[in-house]
Amino acid sequence: MSELKAALDQIVAEMANAPERGEVASYIPELGKVDPAKFGIAVIMNDGGVATAGDADEPFSIQSISKVFTLALALGRVGDTLWKRVGREPSGTPFNSIVQLEREEGIPRNPFINAGAIVVSDVLLAGHQPREAIGEILSFVRSVADDETIVIDRDVASSERATGYRNFALANYLKGFGNLNHAPELTLGVYFHHCAIAMSCKQLANAGRFLANSGRIPSLNHTVISGERARRINALMLTCGHYDGSGEFAFRVGIPGKSGVGGGILAIVPGVASIAVWSPGLNDRGNSMLGSIALEQLAKRMNWSIFSS
Ligand code: GLU
């Protein structure tokens, strides 16, 4: 553990002096207010060991990282029939791209691009009012993180709704192709709110433990999903978790990861650890610039690539 803590402290010190930090997302105006100098990292080992450094206790908007949790919930709800409505291939396109959806007749490439995650929200809305579906997602996140203090940042959700023209376009397209069962504004209400969940690196790393542990949280003696399902979610995180930067992330870091435009990344070392990092500035693919560099350094130092022997 002391080696890990030393690695995190060194990363935090290096990142404080980084010459470039990327651009904070401002297309959701509320996110544009975040201080670009923030940097936090947390690692939870499967044996229960915890190491953190920097602003690891400060909540930030998890944005698309929430798509990992909604996917786990939707698979629990409808099982493999989900794959009739959403694909499992990397998109090679930006997170909010619409062109592929037209060409592929309303079936989004994967559950982590916006169009795919909107379909997943639609699945979770079935049989519920939006408020209930949002409550269920929040309860799930709280339960896997074992933390009842996690909340949704309503200002971020309203800010995204007020400026979410592209997501409205995607939802309308999906509806036009018959791949949305509810009114676009209702499904998007669920989507915007789960993207607006606020968590610290420590809470997020805790929430990812089941993915590092074949679907189980040993300290709580709780099976969240099957081992097979955890493996598959990890595979999708590796191949699709960073949009059109997924190949680069796999090449440089070599572990499954899911990024969000709030600057967070949840990364999983299967069988070993759950990691969350946060630095608000994004690279040109919309993924945390320093967060990706930090994970590359950490994975190298700890020899955590899933491809190393
Ligand atoms: N709520 C964001 C959006 O739909 C999520 C994007 C992301 O985090 O990559 O634009």
Any overview of this molecule?
The chain folds into 2 domains: 2-63 and 199-302, Beta-lactamase (3-Layer(aba) Sandwich); 64-195, Beta-lactamase, CATH 3.40.710.10. The chain is globular and about 55 Å long. It contains 13 helices and 12 strands. A hairpin with a 3-residue loop joins strand 10 and strand 11 (273-278). The two termini are 22 Å apart. Strands 3-2-11-10-9 form a 5-stranded antiparallel beta sheet, with helices on both faces. The chain has a 3-stranded antiparallel beta sheet with strand order 4-6-5. Strands 1-12 form a two-stranded antiparallel sheet. By secondary structure, it is of the alpha+beta class. The protein has helices at 2-16, 66-78, 99-103, 114-125, 130-145, 154-163, 165-176, 184-195, 201-207, 209-212, 227-240, 246-252, 289-302, and strands spanning 23-24, 40-45, 50-54, 60-61, 151-152, 197-199, 216-217, 222-223, 257-259, 264-269, 273-278, 281-282.
Into which percent range does the helicity of residues fall? 40-55%
- Cα(first) to Cα(last) distance is 22 Å
Mean pLDDT: 97
- Per CATH, the superfamily of the largest domain is DD-peptidase/beta-lactamase superfamily
Note the total helix count: 13
Number of strands: 12
What number of domains?
A: 2
Shape: globular
Low-confidence stretches: none
How does the major sheet shape up?
5 strands, antiparallel
CATH class (first level) name of the largest domain: Alpha Beta
Here the CATH topology of the largest domain equals Beta-lactamase
Distinct small molecules bound, one entry per kind: glutamic acid
